[in-house]
Specification:
heterodimer, A: about 140 residues, mainly alpha, about 5% strand, B: mainly beta, Dna Ligase, domain 1, four-stranded antiparallel β-sheet, elongated
Chain lengths: ~140, ~200
Amino acid sequence: MEVKNPQVAVLCNNEVFELLKKTQENTKLIGGMNHSTILYEVNKYLEQRACAEQNPNKIREFLIKLKHMPINLSKKEKLMLVNDPPDSVLRLSLGIKDFYDRLSEPETEMLLFATKKFSGEFQIITKQELVEEEEEEEENN
Amino acid sequence: MFIVSEFEEVVKVQPTHLEDDQMSRIIIHLNSMLANKVVMDVGLCLSLFDILEIGDSIIYPSEGAYFSKVRFRFVVFRPFVEEILIGKVKSSSSDGAVLTTGFFEDIFVPAANMQNPSRFDTKDKVWVWEYDNCGDTVELHMDIGETVRFRVVSEQFVDTHPGVDSGLLDTGEIATSKSKSPYSIVGTVREPGLGVIGWWTDL
């Protein structure tokens, strides 16, 4: 066997989760594969992570939102925000290098609001917040 | 924490499977060959991602089987250095703690990477963070089975190919090299926000 390219792309947890679910179904169809244990173990791990409640549309929406923000985040930082959406400033600072130098306070607030919304923490958004958000979006555009 | 890697392999299909669908034979072969295996400097292979190309099949003289060159991609577990991951405590010793994700168990947090100041409780066999709360020392335990957030500091690949320690070394050396896993990760929890998840949720 030959390794052609050790890293073609990076996958987020949700993509792996969906892919493995499909593979498990295929395994039943084809049969004869002895890698069910590893599929089960990875699935069990991912089930308990944030990715189990995410879907591709939600992730795309979140990434577009991040793109419109005046904050430059690296690919890896975005990946961590998607895989493990922070719910506090402390956790935001873990995933982003030189966090306190790079982000001002309002930017931190904005990012935290976006990640919290992404992880589904605000199920009920008040009207005022909606208006504010629209204004923000308009400003960014 | 997951990546996609591209490989190439010559897949042999035995004559007994000649009437089977070629595609499913190849999928079975690749998954059986690579899933749950570590490839040097690539990572822990999990499952087939897709097949890019299947070359012409060749039958060699005096062989009933046919061989086809297949280019394919595989999902691989390979967290990058600096990545924050979540795992569970598998075991603790005075050297440090071993963490597991359920499918990968070679994550080691050495004693020097524990929260400061920490000590190892020899009676209960757990690591204890002596958190200083305005003069009062609060003891925070890192029990077995607790969910822990940690940062990847470094990774190591060791060639455990049978040829590497084929009796040329001393018996003592073989014993140490045998216990080594092909792919291991060193982690740290020595940062605010890292460690047992429950330590930080009340903030």
